[in-house]
Specification:
It contains five helices and 21 strands. Strands 10, 13, 14, 15, 16, 17, 18, 19, 20 and 21 form a ten-stranded antiparallel sheet that branches. A four-stranded antiparallel sheet has the order 1-3-6-5, with no helix packed on it. The protein has a four-stranded mixed sheet with strand order 2-8-7-4, with no helix packed on it. Bound molecules: zinc ion (ZN).
Length: 319
């Protein structure tokens, strides 16, 4: 005989796995139905453990991110994250020994509103609803910036060739992240300096509105000012590009990246492990740039999040 405690746990699991009575054999006897239900539940979940889900918040501003962490997974479990906040990027899930990590990043294109989130668990050839939550995304205002740029700089750094190089070399770097959390604690501001352009700013260059938005934060500082790694990671890219000048990308693992653009000198090499606060470059004005500054971007794969949001975060999955 099963104890009441075990029975009630199985009933909870039955509800959890949303087992429909319609799937059970028809019977007139309520007791028999209960017996069969329990047998069915036992068979289905006897050797399984219900995964637990944590989410860092149910409301976030554009540029922020939702963090999902799952524990007690079985080796072959797969999670499917469904929402319509965006549809141009897959919802990646990182798996590590019974724990899984997923992030829903928000950028300046995210439309404020309420979004249903559903997480499905695929286990033993079946799909179960595991977690449902309505997520709220709040909006914010963005500045409009007017830039006057020397036409020869525009021509040499924002040419078709420069964009082609950027898309060929820089974009693929962001698709693949190590399945290992390198970062620890907060991400630090990588340079001492004052903000000159905020995340998401709209820009007019020589009077014409650009189609792109400012995907990071600019910090003005003198040429040669040290630039430090915002957190532990692995250098995923360290090269000169026409558009972004001397550029470093750090993979912090599990999909998070930071980017350091327009540098003067680079001190870190591709593939190298770096620690938080390590000097990786100096401020410069290489590429499409009107004066010495660091352009600092943070992303979850292809989605450029607000760098201040990653710097406000304590680095924990449950924060
Ligand atoms: Zn910038």
């Amino acid at each position: 005989m099963m104890s009441n405690a075990v029975l009630s746990k199985l009933v909870v699991l039955a509800l959890f796995f949303n087992i429909q009575s319609a799937e059970l054999p028809q019977t007139d006897s309520k007791a028999e139905l209960n017996r069969q239900l329990m047998a069915n539940v036992q068979k289905t979940v006897a050797e399984t453990i219900a995964p637990t889900v944590t989410i860092n918040a149910t409301s976030q501003q554009e540029g922020g991110f939702f963090l999902l962490r799952f524990t007690n997974l079985l080796a072959d479990d797969k999670l499917v994250i469904e929402h319509n906040i965006f549809s141009d990027t897959e919802n990646k899930v990182y798996y590590q020994n019974g724990t899984a990590y997923a992030v829903i990043p928000l950028d300046y294109h995210t439309i404020p509103g309420k979004y249903p989130l559903t997480v499905k668990l695929q286990r033993m050839g079946k799909s179960f609803p595991l977690f449902q939550q309505t997520l709220s995304v709040t909006g914010r205002e963005y500045e409009m910036q007017h830039l006057q740029v020397n036409q020869s700089t525009v021509d040499s750094t924002r040419s078709d060739e420069a964009y082609a190089e950027y898309h060929k070399k820089f974009m693929p770097v962001r698709l693949k992240s190590d399945n290992q959390q390198y970062w620890e604690g907060r991400f630090i501001q990588p340079v001492e300096g004052h903000q000159t352009t905020d995340y998401g700013a709209k820009r007019k260059v020589n009077g014409s509105l650009t189609s792109y938005r400012h995907n990071g934060v600019d910090f003005g500082a003198a040429t040669g000012t040290p630039i430090y790694a915002s957190n532990h990671g692995k250098v995923a890219f360290a090269e000169k590009l026409k558009l972004t000048g001397n550029t470093i990308v750090i993979d912090h693992g599990l999909g998070f990246f930071t980017y350091y653009l327009h540098c003067d000198q680079l001190f870190a090499k591709q593939g190298e492990r770096v620690i938080k606060g390590q000097k990786i470059a100096t401020v410069g004005t290489t590429g499409f740039s009107t004066g010495p500054h660091l352009h600092f971007t943070a992303s979850y794969h292809l989605k450029n999040i607000n760098p201040y949001k990653i710097m406000e975060w304590n680095g924990d999955w449950q924060n």
